Amino acid sequence: MTAVAKGTEAGNVATSEAKVRCLLVPLNKITLIVPNAAVAEVTGYEEPLPTPHAPRWLLGMMLWRGRTIPLISFERMVGHEAHDSHSRVVVLNTLSGRPELPFVGVSTLGIPRLAQITGDMVSEAARDQSTAVVACRVEVDGETAVIPDVDIIEKMLLHLGLRVG
Fold it and tell me: Which residue has the higher pLDDT, 132 or 63?
């Protein structure tokens, strides 16, 4: 399971008292939830540099803190249409330790908000079989959110030959 999802596995969030602080990230028709530890920064959206021959979900490379990092549309990765109104970018730590791709940006529809999840919010059969980039689904305040599998996303980006510049 991804490093992002590991913090929410039943073994790590064993009781309903254990809480993991997260960000709920609004997208088109879905909401991402990522642990705060996986978030490097939430920043304003700027048009990325195009990447030739890239899949539709790769919006391009964006400049962030003097580096160029990949900017993705998570909606497109799971088969939804991407939103036209980009608001922010959530920069995620990839957490694998690979120096060639330590960060990835995810375009958002709105401003992320804080949340906390507990072990009882993650279902036993949480692994989402519909797409490899969704680690699992959780219920937060009556809303379904998905935990991205950042390890898989990182591997997909590395397979494209992308590196942080």
Answer: 63
Alpha helix segments (H runs only) across 27-118? 74-77
Mean per-residue pLDDT over the chain, rounded: 84
pTM, two decimals, is: 0.83
Q: Which residue has 């539709």 as its token pair?
A: 56
Pick 73 or 143 by higher pLDDT.
73
Phi/psi at 156 (5° precision): -65, -40
CB 59 within 8 A of CB 107: yes
Residue 128: HSE in the Cβ half-sphere, 13 Å Cα cutoff: 19
CA distance 116 to 17: 11
pLDDT (mean) for 39-61 = 94
pLDDT of 128 strictly over 90? no
Residues 6+ apart with CB under 8 A from 159: none
Based on the number of CB atoms within 10 Å of its own CB, is 33 exposed (0-12), middle (13-18) or buried (19 or more)?
buried
**Cβ neighbours for 84, distance < 8 A, ≥ 6 positions apart:** none
Q: Exposed/middle/buried for 6, CB within 10 Å: 0-12, 13-18, 19+?
A: middle
Phi, psi for residue 80 in degrees, rounded to 5? -95, 165
The residues with which 67 forms a beta bridge, in sequence order, are 64
pLDDT of the residue at 3: 42
